[in-house]
Amino acid sequence: MSVVPVIRCTDMARSLAFYTGVLDFRLKYPGQSHEDLVIDIVNDMAELQLSVLGGDGVFGSATNIGVMDVDALFKMCVARGLDASKRPDSPVHQGPVDQTWGKREFYVTDPDGNTLRFGQVIED
User: Fold this and answer.
1) How many Å separate Cα 5 from the centre of its chain?
2) d(CA 101, CA 87)
3) What are the residue boundaries of the structural domains of the chain, listed by start?
C-alpha cells in the first residue's frame, strides 16, 4: 500500500518549476507536461501528485515528508533557489529546527500556499 498526497495548484507550469527546479522532484512519467491537469512527481521514495482540478485537494494543505538528512536537503534547496526570507515570522521556514516532538524539520510553502514539512527523526 502507498499513499500519494494531492497538492492543488493554480498554475501547473509554475508549480512544476518550483517542485522540479527548487525541491528536486522529477516527473514520474515521461511525456507529462505543464499542459496536463494532473502530474505525478517523485523524489527517491516520495511521490506527490500536482493537480489543477477543482475537486482535488485544497489550497493551504500541509504534507509531511520524512528524509534522511534534513540539513543537507535544506542547503540543496537554497542552492537551487529556495527563498527562505519569504516567511520571516516562521523560524522553521528559515532552516532546520529541532522540534519538541523529536524531529528536526524545515518547512517550504509553495506558490499556492501549500506547505511541505521535511523532517528527520532526531537520534539520541
Assistant:
1) 11
2) 22
3) 6-121
The string of pLDDT tens digits covering residues 7-28 is 999 999 999 999 999 999 999 9
Q: Does domain 6-121 have CATH number 3.50.50.60?
A: no
- At residue 91, φ and ψ (nearest 5 deg) are -55, -35
Three cell numbers written together for 94: 528559515
Cα–Cα distance measured from residue 59 to residue 98, given in angstroms and rounded to the nearest whole number: 27
Q: Where are the beta strands (DSSP E) in 12-122?
A: 26-27, 38-43, 46-51, 62-66, 97-98, 103-109, 115-121
- State pLDDT tens for residues 60-90: 999 999 999 999 999 999 999 999 888 889 9
- Beta-bridged to residue 50, according to DSSP, are 7, 39
Q: What are phi and psi of 90, to 5 degrees?
A: -125, 100
With 0.85 as the threshold, say if the pTM is over it: yes
Chain length of the chain: 124
